[in-house]
Amino acid sequence: MTVLAPAWSPTTYLLLLLLLSSGLSETQDCSFQHSPISSDFAVKIRELSDYLLQDYPVTVPSNLQDEELCGALWRLVLAQRWMERLKTVAGSKMQGLLERVNTEIHFVTKCAFQHPPSCLRFVQTNISRLLQETSEQLVALKPWITRQNFSRCLELQCQPDSSTLPPPRSPGALEATALTAPQRPLLLLLLLLPVGLLLLATAWCLHWQRTRRRTPRPREQVPPVPSPQDLLLVEH
C-alpha cells in the first residue's frame, strides 16, 4: 500500500517552525510602549473610596512573593478582579466610580497572567485598604511601566513556607544561578529546535524520493533478432 505524503517543500517546514517559535515568544510578552497609567488615578481612587462603605469586606493576598515590580503587578491583577466583581452588585452611581478605577488598572488584562496558584492565601480586610494598596502599586509602577518587560511576572508566586526553605546560598552561587538559568521562551525554542531539524530532514528525504521517482530510467537495449540469412551464414 502506498502512503501519499503532503507535498510540502523543506521551506514550508522551516517557515512553520519559525511561526511557531515566534508565536510562543509573543504570548510571553508583557510590555507597554505607552503608559496606561493616567496622571489623575489617585483622584479617581479617592472619589471611589469616599463613596464606598469603608468597612466593606474584601480579601487581599497575604503570602505573595516579595518582588519589587512583579509584586505590584500581581496585586493589581487581583485588585482588578475585585473591581469587576463589585460592578456586578453595585448601583448605577457606584458602577461609574468603579469603572473609572477599573480603567486605570485594566491594562493588566493585556498580559497573559496565569491563574493564582493554589498555595496563595488570602485574608479578609476592608475596601479602603484594597484601594490604598492599589494606589501604592500604581505609584510604584508608573516610572517603570514603559521601561521594563514584565514577561517574567506572568506567573504569580507565593512565599515559600519556612519548613521547605532551602539552605542559604552564598552570593556567588546565587549570581551563578541567575546567570545560568535560561528564560522560558528560550527554553521552549531550544526544545523545538530538534523537532524542527527532524521535520526538515524528513522533508528533504521525501523531496529526494519524489525527485528520484520522476527521473526516467534508461531503457534496456534488446539485442536484434537475427534474420534467416544471418542464420544460414552462421551454419556455413
UniProtKB/TrEMBL annotation:
List membrane-spanning regions: 186-207
Per its UniProt record, what Gene3D superfamilies does this chain match? 1.20.1250.10
Does the keyword Glycoprotein feature in the UniProt annotation?
yes
Q: How does it sit in the membrane?
A: Single-pass type I membrane protein
Disordered: annotated span = 215-236
Q: Does the keyword Membrane apply?
A: yes
* Cellular component terms (Gene Ontology): cell surface; extracellular space; plasma membrane
- Protein's recorded name: Fms-related tyrosine kinase 3 ligand
Its gene name is FLT3LG
